[in-house]
Design brief:
Chain A: InterPro entries: AAA+_ATPase, ABC_transporter-like_ATP-bd, ABC_transporter-like_CS, ABC_transporter_ATP-binding, P-loop_NTPase. The complex is a heterodimer. Chain A is α/β, with parallel strands linked by helices. Chain A is 35% helix and 23% strand. Chain B has one domain. Classes of the chains: A alpha/beta, B mainly alpha.
Chain lengths: 339, 270
């Protein structure tokens, strides 16, 4: 958590208290102020078998923000999102969505949020249009079915039975239903999994358009480029904890850049210039990886050395830290740090 | 792809909140479509009850009904109402609940505005309506064409039947808890079917049973309902018996609802 987050969170009791007091009236203006739209403090989730999937995480999402929850499979993303969606009660900690407890005050929260589960369920024998119509009947202020299907590019498939849809089409139907009530807050659990490249780009564009219209989006993904290009802020989860968070730039800024190359036979890694000695070689001693916070200087030094010594560097590859680098690095270091 | 609406328009359209009836209607309509598209379910809901009632009629011919004060037709038609409830509501709904749960429909629905009880009730609507229509048909057929007496106490008949549909729907939810797949529903619904058919007096009225056995059987889930239906249609049971029957059915219903609230599974086991 950055100090910025903490500053926002400090204002919450005031905003939350005020809105909850007025929530008895039914419609409730909860979360309409400047406070965060989604907030979790010390959120824990333990399953009946005793397995702790989420071990006390804090997060805040401001209005109109796209927030990505990243992590490997089993990191606790879905377990977290299910609590935020109000599907499950947290085992510990405090959760507020639009100023309300999403589990106990679902009547106040549900009409204002849209949810897309990691694996959506629709009766396979219903047609696409019938499915949307059923959802529309259960959704306040629902868009017309045609408009919702148009949004996700499924209009041409409205007379097709759900069982005949491809995996990607099913994801898009799921997204259409999540958008049906023009939600203020959108929870998307791996929205682009199973989509082809074009479908993924369409989904990204749609999510950006929604943000432009003021929608707050919390999404989970294990596609790092998705988080990098879409998210205003993100948090990386690992084994039930948030191990890094901030803007994509902040998360990557702290990470070292990387230079990779292979040395030809007969050139020992020990001959590399002194400053690059920290480089790591693989078992053969041929493939070298250098991690550095001074990419330009070290790369220049390496190339000058190679020219001077007349060494050919095979597969030379230098890149500044990407989210992927950061992610792998975090996963690796927390791995070795032990549990 | 079209552009999402602007926020001012969003706010405006938000004033229209969904209502309980609207939500139940939407769920029920979708469920009706599914029922019509599922041949096996349609068979259990429409054809099987008629076949069973015809079968009961023949079976009862060979039984001495002396102790019950019922004619063969009266026993068939009143038992037939119980059979309709059992097949159309219980048997059908176990499959429906399990199918929706395994397809993750229930879990998906729970992310929306519908409440948990509404999901179960909405899913049950077509089966309940189909059952009630068939009960009405039994009464119409009996009174209009088979010279059976008109219901002595229509209110009691109606109340017993309605209580029966609620009880059967709730018990279907309970049975769904222990049913993993739609296929295994054929097995898990069997005990309920057997004990009701035999023990709740669908085929042979309980009055014909030996005393001790009869008083145990009176406590079975569907027994109270069948007694209420018989009392409402052809009369016979006195006030105390009617009260006991109503109480039995009510207790089973409350118990089932409690079990549902506590243990109903909304998503597949993993």
């Amino acid at each position: 958590m950055t100090s910025d987050d903490r500053a926002v969170r400090a204002t919450v009791p005031v905003a939350g208290g005020g809105t909850r007091a007025g929530a008895g009236g039914g419609t409730g203006a909860g979360g309409d102020g400047a406070g965060p739209v989604i907030e979790a403090a010390g959120l824990r989730r333990t399953y009946s078998g005793g397995f702790e999937a989420v071990s006390g995480i804090d997060l805040t999402v401001a209005r109109g923000e796209i927030f990505a929850l990243l992590g490997t499979n089993g990191a606790g993303k879905t377990s977290t999102v299910e609590v935020l969606e109000g599907l499950a009660r947290p085992s510990g900690g405090r959760v507020r969505v639009l100023g309300h407890d999403p589990y106990r005050e679902r009547v106040a929260v549900r009409p204002r949020v849209g949810v897309m589960l990691q694996e959506g369920g629709f009766p396979s024998e219903l047609k696409v249009r019938e499915t949307v119509r059923m959802w529309a009947g259960c959704t306040s202020g629902a868009r017309p079915a045609g408009e919702a299907l148009e949004l996700v590019g499924l209009a041409a498939r409205s007379e097709v039975r759900v069982k005949q849809l491809s995996g990607g089409e099913r994801r898009r139907l799921d997204l259409a239903l999540a958008l049906l009530g023009r939600p203020e807050v959108l929870f998307l659990d791996e929205p682009s999994t199973g989509l082809d490249a074009e479908g993924r780009r369409d989904t990204w564009r749609l999510v950006r358009e929604l943000r432009a219209a003021g929608t707050t989006v919390l999404l989970t993904t294990h596609y790092l480029e998705e988080a990098e290009s879409l998210a205003d802020r993100l948090a990386i989860m690992h084994r039930g904890r948030i191990v890094a968070s901030g803007t994509p730039a902040e998360v990557t800024a702290a990470r070292p850049a990387r230079i990779r190359f292979a040395l030809p036979d007969g050139v020992d890694a020990a001959r590399l210039p002194l400053t690059l000695r920290a480089a790591r070689a693989d078992d053969t001693g041929r493939r070298i990886e250098v991690r550095t916070h001074r990419l330009q200087d070290d790369l220049a030094e390496l190339l000058l050395w190679a020219r001077r010594e007349n060494v050919r560097l095979d597969g030379l590859d230098a890149r500044s830290a990407s989210l992927e680098e950061a992610f792998l690095d975090i996963a690796r270091t927390t791995e070795t740090a032990g549990v | 792809m079209a552009t999402p609406m602007n926020r001012a328009a969003e706010r405006k359209s938000r004033t229209a909140r969904t209502t309980v009836t609207g939500r139940l209607g939407a769920l029920g309509r979708a469920e009706l479509t599914l029922l019509v598209r599922n041949r096996y379910a349609l068979f259990t809901a429409l054809l099987m009850p008629a076949l069973m009632v015809a079968f009961m009629r023949t079976a009862l011919d060979g039984v001495g009904l002396g102790g019950s004060g019922l004619s063969v037709l009266e026993a068939t038609l009143t038992g037939g109402i119980g059979m309709v409830l059992l097949l159309v509501v219980h048997l059908n709904l176990v499959s429906a609940y399990v199918a929706r749960r395994e397809e993750l429909v229930l879990k998906r629905l729970r992310t929306g505005e519908v409440t948990d009880p509404e999901i179960l009730v909405g899913t049950a609507l077509p089966a309940v309506v189909a059952a009630l229509v068939q009960c009405v048909l039994l009464v119409v057929a009996g009174v209009g064409f088979l010279d059976v007496t008109a219901p002595r106490s229509p209110l009691l008949l109606l109340g017993g039947t309605l209580l029966g549909t609620v009880l059967m729907a709730a018990l279907a939810g309970v049975t769904a808890i222990v049913t993993r797949t739609v296929e295994s529903a054929q097995l898990t619904t069997l005990p309920m079917f057997m004990i009701s058919a035999v023990g709740s007096g669908l085929f042979v009225p309980l009055d014909v049973f030996p005393g001790g056995l009869a008083s145990v059987c009176e406590l079975l889930p569907l027994s109270g309902v069948v007694t209420l239906v018989r009392a409402g249609w052809v009369g016979g049971p006195d006030g105390r018996e009617v009260l006991t029957a109503a109480l039995t059915a009510a207790v089973w219903t409350l118990l089932s609802v409690y079990v549902l609230r506590r243990w109903f599974r909304w998503e597949p086991r993993r």
